C-alpha cells in the first residue's frame, strides 16, 4: 500500500514583492508619459476653441457696425445679478461710451459667450474676471449720438496700437490729416488672457487714457494672450460692401 506524504511539496505561483515593485514602477512611468501629451493636447484644443470664439467676436462686431452704424461700447458692470450685466454701457448725457478705455466685451449685446475656453461664468460681484474677454474701442467709432454714424472719412479719437513681442508695430501708430484715412490703426480690439488668466506683455500695462498699446504673437513661457482687432480699412470695406456707409 502506497503511503501519501502528509506535507506534499507545491510549486508557488505569483509575483514576488520585488517583481510587483518593478511592475508598479513601469506602470507609473507609462502613466506619467501619457499625462504630458494629454495636457498638451488639451491646451491646444482650448486655444483652438478660443481662436474660433475670437473669430466669431470679430465677425459679430463688424455685423453690429453694419446694422447700427457704430461699434458697441464696452461693459464694466460687475454684478452678474444686474439685469443689464454683459450689455454695452452708453452715457445717457453724452451718448458715448461710459468707459473710454478698456472694459469687458459686451457679450450679451452681441449674443455671444462672455468668456474663453479657460474661463467660467461669474455668479457674484466679488468673482474675478477669470477668462472674460477684454475689449477696447475707439470713441469716435462707437458714438451713439443721434444721426452720427461711421463714415468713410470718420477719423480716430485715439490710438489703439498693436505690436509684436519685439516691439515692432503691426498697426501704424502715427497719423495726421488725410493720411489718417490710409493707415491701419485698430478701431477695436478684443483679447483673451489665455490659460494663466492674466494679461501678459504690453497687455498687462492697463492704460486708462484713450491711447493704448497691445501685444500679440505666438505663445511663449511669458506670454499666452490671444488678440484680435478690427483695422479701420477692413471695417470701412465691410460696411461699404453691405451698403451701410
Automatic annotation (TrEMBL):
The membrane spanning regions, by residue number, are 20-42
The answer on whether this UniProt entry bears the keyword Membrane reads: yes
Is this entry keyworded Transmembrane? yes
Q: Coiled coil: which residue ranges?
A: none
* Superkingdom of origin: Bacteria
This protein's UniProt keywords: Membrane, Transmembrane, Transmembrane helix
Q: Which SUPFAM superfamilies match?
A: Pili subunits
Signal sequence segment: none
What protein name is recorded for this chain? Answer: Type II secretion system protein
Amino acid at each position: 500500500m502506497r503511503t501519501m506524504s502528509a506535507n506534499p511539496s507545491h510549486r508557488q505561483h505569483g509575483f514576488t514583492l520585488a517583481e510587483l515593485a518593478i511592475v508598479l514602477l513601469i506602470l507609473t512611468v507609462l502613466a506619467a508619459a501619457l499625462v504630458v501629451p494629454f495636457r498638451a493636447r488639451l491646451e491646444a484644443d482650448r486655444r483652438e476653441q478660443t481662436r474660433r470664439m475670437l473669430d466669431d467676436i470679430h465677425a459679430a462686431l463688424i455685423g453690429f457696425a453694419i446694422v447700427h452704424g457704430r461699434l458697441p461700447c464696452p461693459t464694466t458692470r460687475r454684478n452678474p445679478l444686474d439685469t443689464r450685466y454683459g450689455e454695452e454701457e452708453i452715457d445717457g448725457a453724452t451718448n458715448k461710451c461710459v468707459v473710454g478705455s478698456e472694459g469687458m466685451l459686451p457679450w450679451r449685446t452681441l449674443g455671444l459667450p462672455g468668456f474663453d475656453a479657460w474661463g467660467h461664468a461669474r455668479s457674484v460681484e466679488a468673482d474675478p474676471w477669470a477668462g472674460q474677454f477684454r475689449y477696447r474701442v475707439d470713441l469716435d467709432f462707437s458714438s451713439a449720438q443721434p444721426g452720427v454714424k461711421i463714415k468713410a472719412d470718420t477719423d480716430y479719437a485715439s490710438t489703439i496700437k498693436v505690436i509684436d513681442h519685439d516691439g515692432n508695430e503691426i498697426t501704424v501708430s502715427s497719423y495726421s490729416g488725410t493720411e489718417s484715412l490710409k493707415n491701419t490703426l485698430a478701431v477695436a480690439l478684443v483679447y483673451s488672457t489665455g490659460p494663466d488668466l492674466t494679461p501678459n506683455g504690453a497687455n498687462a500695462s492697463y492704460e486708462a487714457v484713450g491711447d493704448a498699446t497691445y501685444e500679440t504673437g505666438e505663445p511663449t513661457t511669458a506670454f499666452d494672450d490671444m488678440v484680435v482687432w478690427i483695422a479701420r480699412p477692413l471695417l470701412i470695406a465691410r460696411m461699404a460692401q453691405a451698403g451701410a456707409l
